[in-house]
Amino acid sequence: MPVTTIDNRPVHVNEEGFLTEPAEWDESLGTALAAQIGLELGDEHWKAIRFLREDYATRGETPTLRRVTVAGGIPTKDLFRLFPSKPAKKLAYVAGLPKPHGCV
Amino acid sequence: MTATDTAPAIVPSFDTPSSTGRKLAIICSKGSLDMAYPGLILANAALGEGVETHMFFTFWGFDIINKKTMGDLKFTPLGNTATHMPQGLGGIPGVTHMATSKLKKSIADLDVPEVPEFLEQIVASGGHLWGCRMSADMNHLTEDDLYNEVEAIISASDFIEKTEGAQLLFI
Questions:
Q1: Contact criterion met (CB < 8 Å) for B14 and A12
Q2: What is the mean pLDDT of residues B145-167?
């Protein structure tokens, strides 16, 4: 797996650029990752990102958008507003997690 | 570490010009539970990828947006060899009910919502739902009979016009 430099530190990523070592992530890196894809993070973004991190830590897989809505309590509409076009992938990227595998 | 770090940073290309402006039209013509889900799942997936998505419900597919039937779609093994059950079984009273319950449970186990909730999620994701004019007229149904988020009952030609340039799926 390649190593790239983000936020002045080396991080392990896959060929697309998603982090492969979730432990290398912290919130300052999250801010830097968001900037790479043109997002400036506010409180609403962080609520979703923190849910993703916690859910991944307990379940070992990135939650799907539906799970962020149902279990994380963040309406689907808001997720599309906060992370436009491809919310599930953008959210996973900023949270330093793999893309979700679920279909729904 | 299998490679050395080099600038520029490796960043996913989420908003490539080729992916913006993509449109998908899904025509749902079947009203059985197993034929409703493919359209719903694909619409949901397309929306999650930033694809403008339009669903057109026609003929039996009208059951998916008819308030009276949308929560009660059924699945039958009859005529479906992919269930690998003797075909005679499908005609026995109660088998459709049993097969429907079993399929619904398998779907719920995967955290996939039931049809009405799935439509709600598709609309919240920016999807467009349209009812077919001829199907509505044939069944004497109006927009009041349909799921509230259906935008309108439109003719086939209106749908074709709305989805100009779209990729199309007929289910």
A1: no
A2: 95
